[in-house]
Amino acid sequence: MVHTVITVAQLAALEALAQHRHERFADAGSALVAIRAGKGHELRGYVHFTQYCEEFLGVSVRHAQRLMQAAGIVRALAAAGIEPPRNEAVVRALAPVAHDQTKLLAVCEETVRRGATPATATAAAIAQVVREVTGRSGAISAGNRNALGTSGQAVCPACKKVPVAYSHQPDGTWVCVGCGARVALLVNAAATASPPPEGAGSESQA
User: Model pTM?
Assistant: First the structure.
């Protein structure tokens, strides 16, 4: 008798998600994680999850592992208020820093400084920034730390989220590290990396 955590109906729904691995890679990865955790592969007669992926789903073990890793990275980005990349290659480029919020924040800030965000930058561009950040002593220079303000309660008017930080730009404006939008913070405390008071507002700038 097969003992699984999920039902056949739940497995079928997860398998349907797993088939959208190109356009919805994070959902596909999350579905694979759920199938493995729930031992759904046993419902299809497979002892090993890897064999089930290759023979039943038609997904190589390597690709399945990448999708599951990507799903975890996207969750980490979402938890930090950062809009996730739109393709798996960019997510893979973020893998070395995805679960270190200090370094992840440094990569996002530097990417924004270069005119992009993790959601819009290419995999090559993100990989270059990751190499630079992970190669630094302490990950973030003192100058960069002073240019990052923790967001406190300031909701970004563009993405409607509270990002982990805003990046101070040379022209005096602030940029949401989550979505890359320029905003006008109504507080100055962020310049010294202290959180603005609760209720501090922000507004978009053209």
Answer: 0.62
